[in-house]
From TrEMBL, chain A:
Pfam family, one: Aconitase_C
Domain Aconitase A/isopropylmalate dehydratase small subunit swivel: 1-124
Keyword NAD applies: no
Biological pathway: Amino-acid biosynthesis; L-leucine biosynthesis; L-leucine from 3-methyl-2-oxobutanoate: step 2/4
Role of this protein: Catalyzes the isomerization between 2-isopropylmalate and 3-isopropylmalate, via the formation of 2-isopropylmaleate.
Lineage: Bacteria, Pseudomonadati, Pseudomonadota, Alphaproteobacteria, Rhodobacterales
Catalytic activity: (2R,3S)-3-isopropylmalate = (2S)-2-isopropylmalate
Protein name (record): 3-isopropylmalate dehydratase small subunit
EC category name: lyase
TrEMBL record, chain B:
Biological source species: Roseinatronobacter ekhonensis
Domain Aconitase/3-isopropylmalate dehydratase large subunit alpha/beta/alpha: 7-456
The organism's taxonomic lineage, starting at the top: Bacteria, Pseudomonadati, Pseudomonadota, Alphaproteobacteria, Rhodobacterales
Domain of life: Bacteria
4Fe-4S among keywords: yes
Keywords linked to the UniProt accession: 4Fe-4S, Amino-acid biosynthesis, Branched-chain amino acid biosynthesis, Iron, Iron-sulfur, Leucine biosynthesis, Lyase, Metal-binding
Protein name: 3-isopropylmalate dehydratase large subunit
Family classification: Belongs to the aconitase/IPM isomerase family. LeuC type 1 subfamily.
One of the Pfam families matching this protein, by short name: Aconitase
Entry binding sites for [4Fe-4S] cluster: C347, C406, C409
Entry keyword annotation includes Nucleus: no
Cofactor binding, per record: Binds 1 [4Fe-4S] cluster per subunit.
SUPFAM superfamilies assigned: Aconitase iron-sulfur domain
GO biological process entries: L-leucine biosynthetic process
Cofactors required: [4Fe-4S] cluster
Length: 201, 469
């Protein structure tokens, strides 16, 4: 997994609430057995018309946002299915950070497994950043994971919360399977005990 | 200290706890399907790791499989075929329990697990699928997980988790006639919103929940995720034990007695602390349908399509967008909305009881829609429905009688809506494009979907079966 430390870039505004995983990556693209290559189909049904032509109005099709690295979105981003194809598609497009007032649980934890930082901020602060985002390339947003801050285009600094373990893994690009396997002795002894206590499992 | 049911199951599965509260939780059952697992098995292979507990891992293809009888000759769509073949290879190489496409026990993973007795009270159950919450109906802590977590569980049989908050959802009293488990679960989401449960594990309780069958309880827990909660729970009781007893992988003999003794301790203590409590009266719940593109867009069938301006916050824009997508006008009577297609099935409502409820409405009647299909949740549900004569009722009414799978719930196989096609569906999501690009979905119970099939429009099933409205 790629580390996440700091990021300064263009943010794309998506003020819709309840952006679900079917919008982020529709199911016809879940048939892949790979993790890569999903970026072209990110937000496919909003981004392309029935003939596969780009819809010029859609934010990521506008010249200013074609290389956006940050999304600022309405509440409950990523609701719906557990598909990790959603963060894979965001990452493949180049998005490394999503800012919203709230995220769906599974999507939120899937982001951290893929080097994407989801940031939760209060409504007024998301509104301010959404305002910045509408200015396109004229307004860059800076994210610093170590200090847990987002800096808006006009220099306003917003602090955000992040779980210490998730932060540690993201900062260092750690694979958490490796970390859990360091505890294999605990797993072995739990399994032995459980086999006594609940042999039917 | 008094504990909730969630606390009790959690405590019994903590392998290791860090100082910041992050836990390594032991996983008793890992269910696997073809869409969210290939990258996990691949990751395992690349790292030279093995499946730690193949005996606790169950694999079944469901999302991609065709539901037409010709599927025994193979899957035509090359990408779907590759994905199902990948599962086949991964399952066989790793030695997990496996139900291939042509096995009569094949079906939707959340229907197969309980049916085969893999899901038992007090267990931790995970699957790379958000509707894993279904298994909570047994008093099992069941989470949906992403593919990286699937790989983590395959490698370690554990999951890194932080404890959620406890929410109690109590449904008091008894359901009126014509009102079902689906109406309960949709009404709860209507009351809390799709983000209302985020960060919580929900325990459903109260008389109306106790009175539900196991099938109904699975329907309720299935949609905990649509309310934002990763897991829903219902304390096990006699009905649960009766359902589990004698299933192929349920404990037997002395082990059954030991299991039962523990299962009987699995309930929330009277004085347990809740972070949030929601109470609904069963008498107030009506048969409901969704009108928009989020499961929280739910209204009693007797209502009208709402005005977008009647919503606050970001919802006004979302409602306007939803009405445009759904091709509806504010103020329109819900019962005036005409339906093209009816889909009865999915892990929400593809069990035998759901098919019985639909058959009761359809018996001796004919459909008035362009197409209608019943997709049983498993091969065994299908066999039982045939034995009970339900399949004949469906076919006589004009329904297609399909093989088991996810089918038009998410339209990854050929069962899809055309743009603008309007569907009465018993599944769980009405998102834009969920059942096919441009397709329009109204969620409802099997009885309500059957009623819509008969009249060709959204219909109050109570009018059709002559129950008092
Ligand atoms: S039936 Fe639908 S919701 Fe259930 S597992 Fe299949 S696709 Fe998911």
């Amino acid at each position: 997994m790629e580390k996440f430390t700091t990021l300064t870039g263009v943010a794309a505004p998506m003020p819709l609430v309840n952006i679900d995983t079917d919008m982020i990556i529709p199911k016809q693209f879940l048939k892949t057995i790979k993790r890569s290559g999903l970026g072209v189909n990110l937000f496919d049904e909003m981004r392309y018309d029935d003939d596969g032509q780009e819809i010029p109005d859609f934010v990521l099709n506008q010249p200013a946002y074609r290389s956006a690295q940050i999304l600022v979105a309405g509440e409950n981003f990523g609701c719906g299915s557990s598909r990790e194809h959603a963060p894979w598609a965001l990452l493949d497009f180049g998005i490394r950070c999503v800012i919203s007032t709230s995220f769906a649980d599974i999507f939120y934890s899937n982001c951290f497994k893929n080097g994407i930082l989801p940031i939760v901020l209060p409504q007024e602060q998301v509104d301010a950043l959404m305002q910045d985002a509408t200015k396109g390339e004229n307004a860059r947003i800076a994210v610093d994971l170590e200090s847990q801050t987002v800096t808006g285009a006009d220099g306003a600094v917003f602090a955000f919360q992040v779980d210490p373990f998730k932060k540690h893994c993201l900062l260092n690009g750690l694979d958490d399977i490796g970390l859990s396997l360091e505890k294999v002795a605990s797993i072995d002894s739990f399994e032995a005990q459980a086999a006594q206590a609940r042999p039917w499992v | 200290m008094p504990k909730t049911l969630y606390d009790k199951i959690w405590d019994a599965h903590v392998v290791h706890q860090d100082t910041d509260g992050t836990c390594l939780l032991y996983i008793d059952r890992h269910l696997v399907h073809e869409v969210t697992s290939p990258q996990a098995f691949e990751g395992l292979r690349m790292a030279g790791r093995k499946v730690r507990a193949p005996d606790k891992t169950i694999a079944v293809p469901d999302h991609n499989v065709p539901t037409t009888p010709d599927r025994e000759h193979g899957i035509e769509n090359p990408e779907s075929r590759i994905q199902v073949e990948a599962l086949d290879r991964n399952a066989r190489e790793s030695g997990v329990h496996y139900y291939p496409v042509n096995d009569v026990r094949q079906g939707i993973v959340h229907i197969v697990g309980p049916e085969q007795g893999w899901t038992l009270p007090g267990m931790t159950v995970v699957c790379g699928d958000s509707h894993t919450a279904t298994h909570g109906a047994f008093g099992a802590l069941a989470h949906g997980i992403g593919t990286s977590e699937v790989e983590h569980v395959l490698a370690t049989q554990t999951l890194i988790q932080q404890k959620s908050k406890n929410m109690k959802v109590e449904i008091t009293g008894s359901l009126p006639p014509g009102v079902t488990a689906k109406d309960i679960t949709l009404s709860v989401i209507g009351a809390t919103g799709t983000a209302g449960g985020t960060g919580y594990v929900i325990e459903y309780c109260g008389q109306a929940i106790r009175e539900l069958s196991m099938e109904g309880r699975m329907t309720v827990c299935n949609m905990a995720i649509e309310g934002g909660a990763r897991a829903g729970l219902i304390a096990p009781d006699e009905k649960t034990f009766q359902y589990v007893m004698g299933r192929p992988h349920a404990p037997k003999g002395a082990q059954w007695d030991a299991a039962l003794a523990w299962w009987k301790t699995l309930y929330s203590d009277d004085d347990a602390q809740w972070d949030k409590v929601i109470t609904l009266r069963a008498e107030d719940i009506a048969p409901v349908v969704t009108w928009g593109t989020s499961p929280e867009d739910v209204l009693p069938i007797t209502a009208h399509v709402p005005e977008p301006d009647s919503f606050t916050g970001g919802k006004t824009g979302a409602a306007r967008r939803a009405l445009a997508y759904m091709g509806l006008e504010a103020g329109q009577k819900l019962t005036d909305i005409e339906i093209d297609t009816v889909f009865i099935g999915s892990c929400t409502n593809g069990r035998i009881e759901d098919l019985r409820a639909a058959a009761e409405v359809l018996k001796g009647r004919k459909i008035a829609v362009k197409r209608a299909m019943i997709v049983p949740g498993s091969g065994l549900v299908r066999a039982q429905a045939e034995e009970e004569g339900l399949a004949q009722i469906f076919m006589d009414a004009g329904f297609e009688w399909r093989l088991a799978g996810c089918s038009m719930c998410l339209a990854m196989n050929p069962d899809q809506l055309a743009p603008g096609e309007r569907c009465a569906a018993t599944s769980n999501r009405n998102f834009e494009g969920r059942q096919g690009r441009g397709g329009r979905t109204h969620l409802m119970s099997p009885a309500m979907a059957a009623a819509a099939a008969i009249t060709g429009r959204l219909t109050d099933v109570r009018d059709l079966v002559g129950e008092p409205a």
